[in-house]
Amino acid sequence: MFKLLLILFFSFIFLTAQAQQWVVYDPSNSGLPSYGPLCVAIDSNDVKWIASGGLNRLYSNNWINYNVTNSPLPNNRIHCIAIDGSNNKWIATEGGIAVYNETSWTLYNSSNSPLPSNLIFDIAIDQNNNKWIATHLGLLKFDGTNWTIYNTSNSGLSNNFVRSVAIEKDSIVWIGTSGGGMCRFINGNWTVFTDTNSGLNANQIYTIVIDKNNKKWIGSENSGGLYSYNDTTFTKYDSSNSTLFENGNTDINSIRVDRLNKKYIGTKYDGLHYFNNQSWTKYNDLNSGLPSNFINSISIDKYYNKWIATDAGGLAVYNETGVVSIKNSLSVIPDKFSLNQNYPNPFNPSTTISFQIPKNNFVNLKVFNINGREVSQLINENLNAGEYKINFDGSEFPSGVYYYKLTGENFSEVKKMVLVK
Protein backbone atom coordinates (compact mmCIF):
# COMPACT_ATOMS: atom_id res chain seq x y z
CA MET A 1 0.00 0.00 0.00
CA PHE A 2 1.00 3.60 -0.47
CA LYS A 3 1.50 5.71 2.59
CA LEU A 4 -0.91 8.64 2.51
CA LEU A 5 1.74 11.26 3.06
CA LEU A 6 2.05 14.17 0.66
CA ILE A 7 5.61 15.21 -0.02
CA LEU A 8 7.59 17.09 -2.64
CA PHE A 9 9.59 14.77 -4.81
CA PHE A 10 11.25 14.83 -8.20
CA SER A 11 9.37 12.93 -10.90
CA PHE A 12 10.17 12.47 -14.54
CA ILE A 13 7.27 13.58 -16.69
CA PHE A 14 7.20 12.58 -20.32
CA LEU A 15 5.34 15.22 -22.31
CA THR A 16 3.68 14.28 -25.58
CA ALA A 17 5.81 14.72 -28.65
CA GLN A 18 3.12 16.61 -30.52
CA ALA A 19 2.74 19.27 -27.83
CA GLN A 20 6.18 19.37 -26.31
CA GLN A 21 8.86 18.50 -28.81
CA TRP A 22 10.09 22.05 -28.27
CA VAL A 23 10.35 24.13 -25.11
CA VAL A 24 11.82 27.64 -25.19
CA TYR A 25 13.22 29.59 -22.23
CA ASP A 26 13.66 33.34 -22.54
CA PRO A 27 13.54 36.35 -20.17
CA SER A 28 9.75 36.53 -20.47
CA ASN A 29 9.06 33.05 -19.05
CA SER A 30 12.13 32.07 -17.04
CA GLY A 31 15.16 33.26 -15.11
CA LEU A 32 17.26 33.48 -18.28
CA PRO A 33 18.75 37.02 -18.25
CA SER A 34 18.98 37.51 -22.02
CA TYR A 35 17.70 36.26 -25.37
CA GLY A 36 21.23 35.38 -26.48
CA PRO A 37 22.77 32.58 -24.38
CA LEU A 38 26.21 31.61 -25.66
CA CYS A 39 26.61 28.07 -24.39
CA VAL A 40 25.22 25.33 -22.14
CA ALA A 41 27.04 22.67 -20.12
CA ILE A 42 25.39 19.81 -18.21
CA ASP A 43 27.00 18.28 -15.14
CA SER A 44 26.71 14.73 -13.78
CA ASN A 45 23.74 15.74 -11.60
CA ASP A 46 21.85 16.95 -14.70
CA VAL A 47 22.24 20.58 -13.64
CA LYS A 48 22.32 22.91 -16.62
CA TRP A 49 24.93 25.70 -16.59
CA ILE A 50 24.09 28.43 -19.05
CA ALA A 51 26.16 31.39 -20.22
CA SER A 52 23.83 34.38 -20.44
CA GLY A 53 24.40 37.64 -18.59
CA GLY A 54 26.89 35.75 -16.44
CA LEU A 55 26.59 32.12 -15.31
CA ASN A 56 23.17 30.58 -14.73
CA ARG A 57 22.32 27.41 -12.84
CA LEU A 58 19.10 25.63 -13.86
CA TYR A 59 17.70 22.62 -12.05
CA SER A 60 14.08 21.60 -11.60
CA ASN A 61 12.91 24.96 -13.01
CA ASN A 62 14.90 26.83 -10.36
CA TRP A 63 17.24 29.50 -11.75
CA ILE A 64 20.26 31.08 -10.06
CA ASN A 65 22.26 33.80 -11.78
CA TYR A 66 25.92 34.50 -10.93
CA ASN A 67 27.34 37.72 -12.33
CA VAL A 68 30.06 40.27 -11.68
CA THR A 69 27.98 42.09 -9.08
CA ASN A 70 26.89 39.14 -6.90
CA SER A 71 29.82 36.73 -7.28
CA PRO A 72 33.56 36.61 -8.03
CA LEU A 73 32.83 35.94 -11.72
CA PRO A 74 35.33 38.24 -13.50
CA ASN A 75 33.28 38.94 -16.62
CA ASN A 76 29.67 38.33 -17.65
CA ARG A 77 30.56 37.24 -21.16
CA ILE A 78 31.28 33.50 -21.16
CA HIS A 79 32.45 31.58 -24.23
CA CYS A 80 32.66 28.08 -22.79
CA ILE A 81 31.84 26.05 -19.68
CA ALA A 82 33.76 22.79 -19.16
CA ILE A 83 33.02 20.38 -16.31
CA ASP A 84 35.70 18.11 -14.89
CA GLY A 85 35.40 14.73 -13.23
CA SER A 86 34.79 16.33 -9.83
CA ASN A 87 31.92 18.45 -11.19
CA ASN A 88 33.97 21.63 -11.00
CA LYS A 89 32.86 24.20 -13.54
CA TRP A 90 35.69 25.72 -15.61
CA ILE A 91 34.32 28.93 -17.04
CA ALA A 92 36.02 30.63 -19.99
CA THR A 93 35.29 34.35 -19.81
CA GLU A 94 36.60 37.53 -21.37
CA GLY A 95 38.17 38.26 -17.97
CA GLY A 96 40.10 35.02 -17.51
CA ILE A 97 39.07 31.64 -16.12
CA ALA A 98 36.75 31.13 -13.17
CA VAL A 99 36.49 27.72 -11.48
CA TYR A 100 33.37 27.12 -9.40
CA ASN A 101 32.71 24.05 -7.24
CA GLU A 102 29.32 25.36 -5.99
CA THR A 103 30.97 26.40 -2.74
CA SER A 104 33.94 28.56 -3.68
CA TRP A 105 35.51 30.27 -6.66
CA THR A 106 39.07 30.18 -7.98
CA LEU A 107 40.21 32.73 -10.56
CA TYR A 108 43.04 32.54 -13.08
CA ASN A 109 44.01 35.54 -15.17
CA SER A 110 47.02 37.15 -16.80
CA SER A 111 47.99 38.80 -13.50
CA ASN A 112 48.09 35.72 -11.25
CA SER A 113 48.94 32.94 -13.71
CA PRO A 114 50.86 32.34 -16.95
CA LEU A 115 47.74 33.01 -19.01
CA PRO A 116 48.92 35.32 -21.82
CA SER A 117 45.45 36.79 -22.26
CA ASN A 118 42.20 37.07 -20.32
CA LEU A 119 40.19 36.38 -23.47
CA ILE A 120 39.41 32.67 -23.23
CA PHE A 121 37.53 30.97 -26.07
CA ASP A 122 37.46 27.28 -25.16
CA ILE A 123 38.49 24.76 -22.50
CA ALA A 124 38.78 21.00 -23.04
CA ILE A 125 39.60 18.41 -20.36
CA ASP A 126 41.52 15.24 -21.19
CA GLN A 127 41.43 11.81 -19.55
CA ASN A 128 44.21 12.85 -17.15
CA ASN A 129 42.23 15.92 -16.02
CA ASN A 130 44.56 18.31 -17.82
CA LYS A 131 42.86 21.49 -18.97
CA TRP A 132 43.59 22.66 -22.53
CA ILE A 133 42.83 26.34 -22.84
CA ALA A 134 42.27 28.30 -26.05
CA THR A 135 43.24 31.97 -26.09
CA HIS A 136 43.93 34.45 -28.87
CA LEU A 137 47.60 34.40 -27.83
CA GLY A 138 48.22 30.67 -27.86
CA LEU A 139 47.21 27.32 -26.37
CA LEU A 140 47.84 26.38 -22.73
CA LYS A 141 47.89 23.11 -20.81
CA PHE A 142 47.24 23.22 -17.07
CA ASP A 143 47.65 20.07 -14.95
CA GLY A 144 46.47 21.70 -11.74
CA THR A 145 49.94 22.87 -10.78
CA ASN A 146 52.03 23.50 -13.87
CA TRP A 147 51.25 25.55 -16.95
CA THR A 148 52.63 24.86 -20.42
CA ILE A 149 52.26 27.46 -23.17
CA TYR A 150 52.23 26.54 -26.87
CA ASN A 151 52.49 29.27 -29.47
CA THR A 152 53.95 29.84 -32.92
CA SER A 153 57.36 30.66 -31.45
CA ASN A 154 57.91 27.52 -29.39
CA SER A 155 55.79 24.83 -31.07
CA GLY A 156 54.16 23.68 -34.29
CA LEU A 157 50.99 25.65 -33.59
CA SER A 158 50.04 27.31 -36.87
CA ASN A 159 48.36 30.41 -35.45
CA ASN A 160 48.22 31.90 -31.96
CA PHE A 161 44.51 32.70 -32.23
CA VAL A 162 43.00 29.42 -30.97
CA ARG A 163 39.21 29.11 -31.23
CA SER A 164 38.50 25.50 -30.25
CA VAL A 165 40.07 22.41 -28.67
CA ALA A 166 38.93 18.77 -28.76
CA ILE A 167 40.46 15.71 -27.11
CA GLU A 168 40.59 12.33 -28.80
CA LYS A 169 41.40 9.10 -26.97
CA ASP A 170 44.98 8.75 -25.72
CA SER A 171 45.04 12.52 -25.25
CA ILE A 172 45.39 13.43 -28.91
CA VAL A 173 44.66 17.15 -29.02
CA TRP A 174 42.92 18.77 -31.99
CA ILE A 175 43.12 22.55 -32.21
CA GLY A 176 41.06 24.88 -34.37
CA THR A 177 42.68 28.22 -35.14
CA SER A 178 41.53 31.50 -36.59
CA GLY A 179 43.52 31.73 -39.78
CA GLY A 180 45.90 28.78 -39.39
CA GLY A 181 43.57 25.86 -40.08
CA MET A 182 43.51 22.83 -37.79
CA CYS A 183 46.38 21.31 -35.80
CA ARG A 184 46.88 17.86 -34.30
CA PHE A 185 49.20 17.49 -31.31
CA ILE A 186 50.25 14.04 -30.15
CA ASN A 187 53.28 13.02 -28.10
CA GLY A 188 55.08 16.27 -28.84
CA ASN A 189 54.48 16.07 -32.59
CA TRP A 190 52.45 18.61 -34.54
CA THR A 191 50.55 18.24 -37.81
CA VAL A 192 48.88 21.19 -39.51
CA PHE A 193 45.92 20.93 -41.88
CA THR A 194 45.12 23.97 -44.02
CA ASP A 195 43.45 24.83 -47.32
CA THR A 196 46.76 24.29 -49.10
CA ASN A 197 47.79 20.85 -47.83
CA SER A 198 44.53 19.04 -46.97
CA GLY A 199 40.87 18.64 -47.86
CA LEU A 200 39.97 21.70 -45.83
CA ASN A 201 38.83 24.70 -47.86
CA ALA A 202 38.99 27.13 -44.94
CA ASN A 203 41.52 28.17 -42.31
CA GLN A 204 39.01 29.62 -39.83
CA ILE A 205 38.02 26.67 -37.64
CA TYR A 206 35.26 27.40 -35.14
CA THR A 207 34.54 23.98 -33.63
CA ILE A 208 35.91 20.42 -33.60
CA VAL A 209 34.08 17.38 -32.21
CA ILE A 210 35.17 13.71 -32.07
CA ASP A 211 32.45 11.11 -32.70
CA LYS A 212 32.19 7.57 -31.34
CA ASN A 213 34.25 6.19 -34.23
CA ASN A 214 36.99 8.78 -33.61
CA LYS A 215 36.00 10.64 -36.76
CA LYS A 216 36.65 14.37 -36.49
CA TRP A 217 33.79 16.77 -37.34
CA ILE A 218 35.02 20.25 -38.17
CA GLY A 219 32.98 23.43 -38.39
CA SER A 220 34.48 26.38 -40.24
CA GLU A 221 33.70 29.82 -41.60
CA ASN A 222 30.92 30.32 -44.14
CA SER A 223 33.04 29.72 -47.23
CA GLY A 224 34.41 26.51 -45.78
CA GLY A 225 31.46 24.71 -44.24
CA LEU A 226 31.36 21.35 -42.47
CA TYR A 227 33.90 18.56 -42.79
CA SER A 228 34.52 15.11 -41.42
CA TYR A 229 37.97 13.55 -41.22
CA ASN A 230 38.66 9.86 -40.60
CA ASP A 231 42.44 10.27 -40.28
CA THR A 232 42.80 9.58 -43.99
CA THR A 233 40.18 11.49 -45.96
CA PHE A 234 38.30 14.76 -45.58
CA THR A 235 34.62 14.83 -46.59
CA LYS A 236 32.94 18.16 -47.15
CA TYR A 237 29.20 18.66 -46.58
CA ASP A 238 27.37 21.35 -48.50
CA SER A 239 24.14 21.79 -50.48
CA SER A 240 25.11 18.96 -52.85
CA ASN A 241 25.10 16.24 -50.19
CA SER A 242 23.28 17.71 -47.17
CA THR A 243 20.69 20.28 -46.07
CA LEU A 244 23.50 22.74 -45.35
CA PHE A 245 23.93 25.97 -47.33
CA GLU A 246 20.74 25.63 -49.35
CA ASN A 247 20.25 29.36 -48.85
CA GLY A 248 23.90 30.37 -49.10
CA ASN A 249 27.02 29.95 -47.03
CA THR A 250 26.94 30.21 -43.25
CA ASP A 251 29.31 29.61 -40.33
CA ILE A 252 29.21 26.28 -38.49
CA ASN A 253 29.15 27.36 -34.85
CA SER A 254 28.49 24.12 -32.98
CA ILE A 255 28.48 20.35 -33.49
CA ARG A 256 27.26 17.70 -31.04
CA VAL A 257 27.18 13.91 -31.27
CA ASP A 258 24.48 11.92 -29.46
CA ARG A 259 24.64 8.46 -27.89
CA LEU A 260 23.83 6.80 -31.23
CA ASN A 261 26.57 8.74 -33.03
CA LYS A 262 24.07 11.02 -34.78
CA LYS A 263 25.16 14.61 -35.40
CA TYR A 264 23.50 17.94 -34.63
CA ILE A 265 24.98 20.95 -36.39
CA GLY A 266 24.25 24.52 -35.34
CA THR A 267 24.75 27.28 -37.89
CA LYS A 268 25.02 31.05 -37.77
CA TYR A 269 21.95 31.88 -39.89
CA ASP A 270 20.66 28.55 -41.23
CA GLY A 271 19.17 26.84 -38.19
CA LEU A 272 19.80 23.34 -36.82
CA HIS A 273 20.74 20.38 -39.01
CA TYR A 274 20.45 16.72 -38.00
CA PHE A 275 22.47 13.97 -39.69
CA ASN A 276 21.70 10.35 -38.78
CA ASN A 277 24.69 9.18 -40.86
CA GLN A 278 22.40 8.46 -43.80
CA SER A 279 19.99 11.34 -44.27
CA TRP A 280 19.63 14.97 -43.24
CA THR A 281 16.86 16.98 -41.56
CA LYS A 282 16.81 20.75 -41.23
CA TYR A 283 15.05 22.67 -38.44
CA ASN A 284 14.48 26.40 -38.64
CA ASP A 285 12.11 29.04 -37.32
CA LEU A 286 9.59 28.27 -40.08
CA ASN A 287 9.25 24.48 -39.85
CA SER A 288 9.83 23.86 -36.14
CA GLY A 289 9.76 25.38 -32.67
CA LEU A 290 13.28 26.74 -33.07
CA PRO A 291 13.00 30.42 -32.06
CA SER A 292 16.03 31.67 -34.01
CA ASN A 293 18.14 30.41 -36.92
CA PHE A 294 21.32 31.77 -35.32
CA ILE A 295 22.65 28.99 -33.08
CA ASN A 296 25.57 29.56 -30.73
CA SER A 297 25.90 26.09 -29.22
CA ILE A 298 24.24 22.71 -28.68
CA SER A 299 24.41 20.34 -25.68
CA ILE A 300 22.64 17.01 -25.10
CA ASP A 301 21.53 15.80 -21.66
CA LYS A 302 21.13 12.24 -20.42
CA TYR A 303 17.47 12.19 -21.42
CA TYR A 304 18.52 13.08 -24.99
CA ASN A 305 17.06 16.56 -24.83
CA LYS A 306 18.98 18.91 -27.10
CA TRP A 307 19.71 22.26 -25.39
CA ILE A 308 20.17 24.87 -28.10
CA ALA A 309 21.55 28.31 -27.26
CA THR A 310 20.36 30.78 -29.88
CA ASP A 311 21.54 34.30 -30.54
CA ALA A 312 18.21 36.12 -30.37
CA GLY A 313 15.54 33.59 -29.44
CA GLY A 314 16.59 32.37 -26.01
CA LEU A 315 17.32 28.78 -25.01
CA ALA A 316 15.47 26.07 -26.93
CA VAL A 317 15.09 22.45 -25.78
CA TYR A 318 14.24 19.82 -28.37
CA ASN A 319 13.43 16.12 -28.12
CA GLU A 320 11.86 14.38 -31.08
CA THR A 321 9.92 12.04 -28.76
CA GLY A 322 8.92 14.79 -26.32
CA VAL A 323 10.99 16.87 -23.94
CA VAL A 324 11.71 15.03 -20.69
CA SER A 325 11.73 17.43 -17.77
CA ILE A 326 12.03 17.28 -13.99
CA LYS A 327 9.38 18.99 -11.92
CA ASN A 328 8.36 19.15 -8.28
CA SER A 329 5.00 17.47 -7.70
CA LEU A 330 2.76 16.46 -4.81
CA SER A 331 2.11 12.75 -4.56
CA VAL A 332 2.08 9.76 -2.22
CA ILE A 333 5.13 7.82 -1.10
CA PRO A 334 5.36 4.26 -2.42
CA ASP A 335 5.99 1.67 0.29
CA LYS A 336 8.02 -0.66 -1.95
CA PHE A 337 9.94 -0.89 -5.19
CA SER A 338 7.76 -1.55 -8.21
CA LEU A 339 8.45 -1.78 -11.93
CA ASN A 340 5.41 -1.40 -14.15
CA GLN A 341 4.70 -2.78 -17.59
CA ASN A 342 5.63 -0.29 -20.28
CA TYR A 343 2.86 1.46 -22.20
CA PRO A 344 2.07 1.12 -25.00
CA ASN A 345 3.24 -2.43 -25.57
CA PRO A 346 3.84 -3.45 -28.32
CA PHE A 347 5.15 -0.01 -29.33
CA ASN A 348 6.52 1.92 -32.31
CA PRO A 349 8.80 3.79 -31.93
CA SER A 350 8.56 4.96 -28.30
CA THR A 351 7.06 3.78 -25.06
CA THR A 352 6.90 4.94 -21.44
CA ILE A 353 8.39 2.95 -18.55
CA SER A 354 7.23 3.82 -15.03
CA PHE A 355 8.42 2.66 -11.62
CA GLN A 356 8.19 3.52 -7.93
CA ILE A 357 10.87 3.67 -5.25
CA PRO A 358 10.09 3.91 -1.51
CA LYS A 359 13.12 5.90 -0.37
CA ASN A 360 16.13 7.80 -1.65
CA ASN A 361 18.10 5.29 -3.67
CA PHE A 362 20.69 4.79 -6.36
CA VAL A 363 18.69 3.44 -9.28
CA ASN A 364 19.71 1.89 -12.56
CA LEU A 365 17.34 1.30 -15.48
CA LYS A 366 18.71 -0.47 -18.56
CA VAL A 367 17.32 -1.93 -21.77
CA PHE A 368 18.63 -5.17 -23.30
CA ASN A 369 17.99 -6.92 -26.59
CA ILE A 370 16.88 -10.56 -26.84
CA ASN A 371 20.53 -11.66 -26.79
CA GLY A 372 21.13 -9.96 -23.45
CA ARG A 373 23.24 -7.15 -24.86
CA GLU A 374 22.70 -3.74 -23.28
CA VAL A 375 21.34 -1.27 -25.84
CA SER A 376 20.42 1.70 -23.66
CA GLN A 377 20.95 3.01 -20.14
CA LEU A 378 17.99 5.20 -19.23
CA ILE A 379 18.79 6.02 -15.61
CA ASN A 380 21.91 5.63 -13.48
CA GLU A 381 21.70 8.02 -10.52
CA ASN A 382 20.39 8.79 -7.06
CA LEU A 383 16.64 9.44 -7.02
CA ASN A 384 14.30 10.61 -4.30
CA ALA A 385 11.34 8.49 -3.19
CA GLY A 386 8.43 8.67 -5.59
CA GLU A 387 7.00 7.57 -8.91
CA TYR A 388 8.97 8.04 -12.11
CA LYS A 389 8.19 7.91 -15.81
CA ILE A 390 10.79 7.83 -18.54
CA ASN A 391 10.49 7.50 -22.29
CA PHE A 392 12.34 4.86 -24.29
CA ASP A 393 12.83 5.69 -27.95
CA GLY A 394 13.29 2.61 -30.13
CA SER A 395 13.47 4.40 -33.46
CA GLU A 396 17.11 3.39 -33.96
CA PHE A 397 16.61 -0.28 -33.04
CA PRO A 398 15.19 -3.19 -35.07
CA SER A 399 11.85 -4.82 -34.36
CA GLY A 400 11.95 -7.52 -31.73
CA VAL A 401 11.74 -8.43 -28.08
CA TYR A 402 13.54 -6.24 -25.56
CA TYR A 403 13.91 -6.41 -21.79
CA TYR A 404 14.16 -3.56 -19.34
CA LYS A 405 15.71 -4.04 -15.91
CA LEU A 406 15.33 -1.86 -12.83
CA THR A 407 17.94 -2.22 -10.09
CA GLY A 408 17.96 -0.55 -6.68
CA GLU A 409 18.86 -1.34 -3.09
CA ASN A 410 17.98 -5.04 -2.54
CA PHE A 411 15.75 -4.90 -5.59
CA SER A 412 15.95 -6.07 -9.19
CA GLU A 413 13.16 -6.73 -11.66
CA VAL A 414 12.97 -7.37 -15.38
CA LYS A 415 10.05 -6.96 -17.78
CA LYS A 416 9.60 -7.69 -21.47
CA MET A 417 8.50 -5.28 -24.18
CA VAL A 418 8.03 -5.67 -27.93
CA LEU A 419 9.04 -3.19 -30.61
CA VAL A 420 7.03 -3.63 -33.82
CA LYS A 421 7.82 -1.53 -36.89
What does this structure look like?
It contains one helix and 37 strands. With 421 residues, the chain is mainly β. The strands form ten sheets. The protein has a four-stranded antiparallel beta sheet with strand order 2-29-28-27, with no helix packed on it. Strands 3-4-5-6 form a four-stranded antiparallel beta sheet, with no helix packed on it. A four-stranded antiparallel beta sheet has the order 7-8-9-10, with no helix packed on it. β21 and β22 (234-237) form a beta hairpin. The longest helix has 4 residues, at 17-20. The chain is globular, with a radius of gyration of 22 Å. It starts with a strand and ends with a strand. Residues 1-19 and 326-331 have low confidence and may be disordered.
SSE blueprint and pairings:
Blueprint lengths: L2 E12 L2 H4 L1 E4 L13 E4 L5 E4 L3 E5 L2 E5 L11 E6 L5 E5 L2 E5 L4 E4 L11 E6 L5 E5 L2 E5 L4 E4 L11 E7 L3 E6 L4 E5 L2 E5 L11 E6 L5 E5 L5 E4 L4 E4 L14 E6 L5 E5 L4 E4 L4 E4 L11 E6 L5 E5 L4 E4 L5 E10 L4 E2 L10 E8 L3 E9 L4 E10 L2 E8 L6 E9 L2 E9 L2
Antiparallel strand pairs: 1-30, 2-29, 3-4, 4-5, 5-6, 7-8, 8-9, 9-10, 11-12, 12-13, 13-14, 15-16, 16-17, 17-18, 19-20, 20-21, 21-22, 23-24, 24-25, 25-26, 27-28, 28-29, 31-32, 32-35, 33-34, 33-36, 36-37
